Amino acid sequence: MSDVQFRFRDDEPVGDPGVTVGAFGEQSNASAVRLEPGDEARDLLPHLGRIRLIEVNFPVFGDGRGYSAARILREAGYQGELRAVGEVLVDQIAFMRRCGFDAFAPEIALDPGDAEAAWSRYAEVYQPTSDGRKPIWARRHG
């Protein structure tokens, strides 16, 4: 498991490793889950109140299923830590953050300056997502 390099939360980090989605239902004391590509994020929806951490694995940079999982979870009201793990690249982190990720544990550490530049590159956004930023069209047209 990679170390968390960036975290945008004030609560105490969860130290327990995430269990698989399949094992989660059998472990009533588990508070951390790891979603792999192909796992169904919707399977976790009935349990969101007891999950403190969901790790979403990006095994390769081209696999975008984790973005959809993040949106599903945030739109369903998940308030816990949503951590992107694995092959997390600097050119993706701004989009991951917009989808609801609030912690990042890249397999290979990112340059902090490059990461900060990625998060602050675009002053305006075009799509509504879970990061709370109002899209430019909504600012123009109410």
What attributes characterize this protein structure?
142 residues, alpha/beta, 6-stranded mixed beta sheet, 6 strands, globular
Short structural description:
With 142 residues, the protein is α/β, with parallel strands linked by helices. The protein has helices at residues 21-24, 65-75, 93-99, 112-120, 136-141, and strands at 6-7, 19-20, 32-35, 53-58, 81-86, 103-106.
Describe the overall structure.
The chain has about 140 residues and is α/β, with parallel strands linked by helices. The protein is about 25% helix and about 15% strand. A six-stranded mixed beta sheet has the order 1-6-5-4-3-2. The relative contact order is 0.17. The model has no long low-confidence stretch (mean pLDDT about 90).
Mean pLDDT: 89
DSSP helical segment count: 5
Helix vs. strand class: alpha/beta
Q: What does the largest sheet look like?
A: 6 strands, mixed
List the quaternary state of the chains.
single chain
Shape: globular
Outline the low-pLDDT stretches. none
Please indicate the percent range of residues in DSSP E strands (runs of 2 or more). 15-25%
Helical content class:
25-40%
Q: Topology as H/E string?
A: EEHEEHEHEHH
Give the strand order, joined by hyphens, for the main sheet.
1-6-5-4-3-2
Between the first and last Cα atoms, what is the distance in angstroms? 44 Å
